Amino acid sequence: MGLLSNRVERSEIRPGDHIYTWRAVYAYSHHGIYVGGSKVVHFTRKKETEGSDSSSDSTSILISEAPSECPTFPDCGFQLPSSGVVLTCLDCFLRNGSLYCFEYGVPSTVFLAKLRGGTCTIAQSDPPETVIHRAMYLLQNGFGNYDIFEKNCEDFALYCKTGLLPVEEPGIGTSGQASSAIGVPLAALFSTPFKLLAAGPIGMATVTAGMYCAGRYITDI
Q1: In this protein, which residues make up the domain named LRAT (predicted)?
Q2: Which of 100, 202, 213, 214 has most Cβ atoms within 10 angstroms of its Cβ?
Q3: How far apart are alpha carbons 11 and 13 in whole angstroms?
Q4: How many domains does the chain have?
Q5: Which residues have a catalytic role annotated?
Q6: Domain containing 115: what range?
């Protein structure tokens, strides 16, 4: 793994690792916890009940659905009816995408140097056995309602790895990709008062980039 990419081979991941893959031509990433045996526990929407209509959900394109069937693993797709936490095989999790491993305990300089959020955190990971225990517990007990900005698949994986999840204030969750998606337009908006201090487009871009990085650092767990 490096500064530009966290891509890894299947032989490199270990039980308890936080893994992810990119969806929709790098529009967003889907995250999960590798629990060993080519199995992944991850978080998505609850199973649709009969007669429900999800076509009005404007964020459905950004939500990774659980696979309907798998010819390789009989228990692939295990998901309680009232829960969004699902167990799948690694193949169904990746959907022919590349495999990436989320980094923990990175220095602040490395964290801020990453051009896109949702790939690393300055927080330290708990031991693998603790991570797997949390993931399997949530598979049987649920993780609440899925929300693309406040409680998504990355938040689930971050909680399994660290036990940290902000619940006091509504808004953006711990996930880096959610804060990145909202951080850019907000940084541009709030940097407007500083335009007198930033002469020209280069100065304005510098201020905006600085506020974007500060926002990512503040929202990181």
Answers
A1: 20-169
A2: 100
A3: 6
A4: 1
A5: 30, 42, 153
A6: 10-164
